[in-house]
Amino acid sequence: MLSILLWIPLIGAIAIALWPNFQSGRQVKQFSLVVSVLALVWTAVIGSQFDIAIAGSQFQETIPWLDSLGLRYQVGIDGLSFPLVALNSLLTCIALYSTDDEIERPRFYYSLMLLLNFGVVGAFLAENMLLFFLFYEIELIPLYLLIGIWGGARRGYAATKFLIYTAVSGIAILGSFLGLVWLSGADSFAYQPDLAHSLSLTQQVLLLGGLLLGFGIKIPLVPLHTWLPDAHVEASTPVSVLLAGVLLKLGTYGLLRFGVGLFPEAWSVLAPWLASWAVVSVLYGAFTAIAQTDMKKMVAFSSVGHMGFILLAAAAATPLSLVAVELQMVSHGLISALLFLLVGVVYKKTGTRDLTILRGLLNPERGLPVIGSLMVLGVMASAGIPGMVGFISEFLVFRASFTAFPVQTLLCMVGTGLTAVYFLLLVNQAFFGRLATRADGKVVTLPPVAWSDRYPGILLALLVVLFGLQPSWITSWTEASITQLAQTAATPVAVLAPSASAVLGQSSVP
Amino acid sequence: MNDILVQTSWWVPCYGLLGALLTLPWSMGLVKRSGPRPAAYFNILMTVVSLVHGTLAFRATWHQEPVQLVFHWLTVADFDLTFLVEISSTTMGVMELVTSLSFLAQIFALGYMEKDFALARFFGLMGFFEAAMSGLAISNSLFLSYALLEMLTLSTYLLVGFWYAQPLVVTAARDAFLTKRVGDILLLMGVVTLSVLAGSLNFPDLYDWAETATLTPLVATLLGLALIAGPSGKCAQFPFHLWLDEAMEGPNPASILRNSVVVSSGAYFLIKLQPILNLSPVALTTLVVIGSITAIGESLVAIAQIDIKRALSHSTSAYLGLVFIAVGMQWTNVAFLLLFTHAIAKALIFMSVGGLIITTNTQDLTEYGGLWSRMPATTTSFVVGASALVGLFPLGCFWAFERGLDIYWYDQPLLAAIVLTVNLLTAINLTRIFRLVFLGASQPKTRRAPEVPWPMAVPMVSMIIVTLLSPLMMMRLSLLPNLAYINKSAAAALVLSGVIGCSIGATLNLNRSMARPIQKPLRVLQDILAYDFYIDRLYRVTVVFVVAYLSQITAWIDRYIVDGLVNAIGLASVLSGESLKYSASGQSQFYMLTILIGVGILGLLFTWTLW
After folding, report:
1. Which residue, B7, B46, B261, B276, shows the most beta carbons closer than 10 Å to its own?
2. Residues A367, A446: contact at Cβ < 8 Å?
3. Which of B76, B555, B566 minimises the CB distance to A323?
4. Whole-structure pTM over 0.80, yes or no?
């Protein structure tokens, strides 16, 4: 059942690449849309069969593959991965829909997009660490090409930077997985929460350090983040949507699944440091965003800041905080996808993203009023205004982390305030004011926005509001699994906490 | 029937929201044939529905026990987020005030905004505004109230920024949002802390907790200060008062609501918080201090303004300062009464101002003159509103002031003096405005000044009647003290301060063409007051400066240190490869030499310890 979710995009990608009879780019687009909608429908089917009361993974499938290596094709889905799989299917549809009809080399492009979808779904479903690593690397190749071929002026630089960074991330993760399996003496790479229990704390901390480096690059955390703004600025809009909406979630998902799940003792030792790291990330992202003049770069740095909230809540590792992590992942996925879509429309219509040039885009006759209104909604959601999903997820993050790390939580709240600052600057600069007149004194009339450019944004905005009013529609999917995860994280901590601090020779407060 | 009405009275805010949603087809440009008017009518219809429902529910709750409705919103792990809604005669009364003022303001807007192309958007925002405020009235949960206050922040931003093409509007909207947001973030910190400490965010639970809680003084102080930061931003109190003045760039019908009920909603929230604030004496003292500073400072600043809306908005801050003092002194009854009477009087005055602006197309006090005979309804509403605002017996604010003076007279003479001073200064300001606008010779912009059209006149006249009847209403609601027990000397002082203020205002030398004094000290004083103690420059050299420089520095670090390091590593690896490629010369002697040297160094290293 789950494998079909993998087969749909893979077969679609191969078909697009090989089928000789496509007449135009439009046809390819329609075909790939059909494929992605099929995947979305299948996700919904799985959702309808999904039992939210079961904490463990469901729909498991196991096929022997390279048993001598410990590599098996093991997939399953649980409350941690289901919302992300659904988010991925949805955003792939939206990204494909909002792709330009006249794109160059359409067959290559669409098959890469579907391949990307395949890799990401695989990584979310994999229950074997080596299999996860394979999917994690598969997703890298299409993304490299998507940035490197259809990107902006400095695409070569950005794509290479992305490739090298993510490759390093992959090596670090692989190293940790190998070390874990060798040291624990397990006979396969199958995911088992108790794998690390026999390891000494020092070993655990070292292995967790590898994972933190690897996933920290992917999330990204300061100072491992510099690939992200470049990649976003150079990538085309649909790729940015997927990059911000889904791909960054691979990092946080990995942190939760493998960091918290496999190394609970080491996690609790490092947690205060992680929380402080989160503060640095949040404030650094926010302050850097304020200084940006490129809209897309500003949104990219806001991602850096908002992913810091996830690290903060993950560090606390209570049931509530981990649910908050999941909610924040989904909410960031929706909101940042919305923002990148809108920035993409602005760029398409005005030819620039420079905040020092853009003015008065809300103009009802000659500007982009609907896009502007959606932008106001998007930035307000990102700044955590109630009624939208960003608020409740951030509130849960703060509420849950406050018990463990009060000072760090308060500092992260300052970051929320700063979010309002830079996004308000963006709206005030670009959308308020008077629409510029050209140098020759003629008024500027921007090309009208087609409804097809608005639908994806409107859909995402509706979802942002809907989940803001009913957050339990996300949290109920994930609660059982998260509670179990948090319990595995909590049990050994209680027993081992004194020895843990003894080993590192310091108390738990940095 | 009554039971159903009471149980469903939480629908009232939803009506406003529904009205806002109904305007969407027009504001998005989907329906163009009909023009934007139907959107306005839908919205007014929904307000009427909420008004009717609210009135019936109000009658049903009269002399009844309060009803608490519980909504389980989100249950995650060990965290249960419930919304508590209190349906009592008090909360329904406040909601009635909000919806009826919103109704009048919307009728008023039909006339005021008639020629505006974005009428539908305006009414949508008004519906949103009304929904948030009436929700706040019945909310009995700190979390829900916080959320609604944030929505008010958002809708204030959008309403102030309504005419977004004007540069002043853009900065005004930005300042309104950011100032309130600073307060809101501090408040959020308080809310999160309370949620962890008390375990529940519903006010009754919090009150119970606050009675028995034992906090260290530091925690209690920080908590109290965080909690009052939010209302200070909402109520435009020092040092968060700048935005209200700038917000006067927005459309006037929204200013009617903003100066009456919106700022009051912040104070209403503060009154709700009061039992929790008792934990921290420092916070209560702070309330009194910032209230006093704002009350006196803003009353003075108001006198130096030449923009009519600004001159009145500063007095709003001053009155809210008095409310803050009352809450800080734990006299919530006084605070409540003052909020109620001030809201009605201020709404009326702002209606009159709206009439002036639409007729003369100016907000500059020096450009008005001689309007009293041309615009009788507008003049009457200004006079009635102004007399209700100063302590003129027996109109609204007299009773609020009198109640406050009664309490402060013997124990806190300083506070009593502040109340009297504010009354005096307000009387000066209102008389000054009255003379400039309505008396004197006509000016170019006031020569052809017909009375306002009926959509504006009807709400104005209804509001005049309401204001005149407000003492009777208060008597019916048994809010008034028995005349036999009032402090005669306090009442006399109050009336006297008003009379002195009016006579100073009447004799003040007002020169329209030469508004600036020639004497240097006077001019400096006028500038300090006219520019609101240069508070915006204070912001600029402190908060704005710090944030701007920190962001510049971080961006520099990001670009040149973090990214620079990454690029340097890349460059180093490329350069080393590029330079090493020259060693591939094809001569085997060279390779042999390289190998020899390499092996030699390795051998040296390995045998180093043996030497």
Report:
1. B261
2. yes
3. B76
4. yes
d(CA B336, CA B340): 6
Q: pLDDT tens digits, residue range A424-467?
A: 999 998 999 888 777 777 777 888 888 888 999 999 999 999 99
- What is the predicted pLDDT for the residue at B522? 86
Identify the closest residue of chain B to A318 by CA–CA distance. B77
How far apart, in whole angstroms, are the C-alpha atoms of residue B222 and residue A330?
Answer: 33
Residue B170 has its nearest CB partner, among A226, A418, A433, at: A433
**Subunit contact A385:B75, Cβ cutoff 8 A:** no
Residue of chain B whose alpha carbon sits nearest to that of A476: B76
* Cα A75 from chain centroid (whole Å): 21
CA R_g for chain B: 31
CB atoms within 10 A of CB A53: 8
Close Cβ partners of B558 (under 8 Å, ≥ 6 residues apart):
A226, A284, A288
CA–CA gap between residue B353 and residue A222 (Å, rounded):
53
CA atoms within 13 A on the CB side of A389: 29
Q: Are B202 and B141 in contact (CB under 8 A)?
A: yes
Please report the pLDDT score of residue A56 as a whole number: 87
* The pLDDT value given to residue B585: 81
Which residue in B170, B550, B558 is closest to A428 by CB distance? B170
CA nearest neighbour of B201 among B268, B257, B273, B258: B273
Angstrom distance (rounded) from CA B304 to CA B300: 7
Q: CA-based Rg of chain A, rounded to a whole angstrom?
A: 22
Residues of chain A with pLDDT under 50: 492-510
Instruction: Give me the residues of chain B with pLDDT under 50, please.
Output: none
Q: Does A398 touch chain B (CB under 8 A)?
A: yes
Answer yes or no: are the C-beta atoms of B235 and B270 closer than 8 Å.
yes
Q: pLDDT tens-digit profile of B98-138?
A: 999 999 999 999 999 988 888 999 999 999 999 999 999 99
Report pLDDT for A68: 87
Q: Which residues 284-303 in chain A show a CB within 8 A of chain B? A: 284, 287-292
Q: Are B194 and B201 in contact (CB under 8 A)?
A: yes
pLDDT at A496 (0 to 100):
41
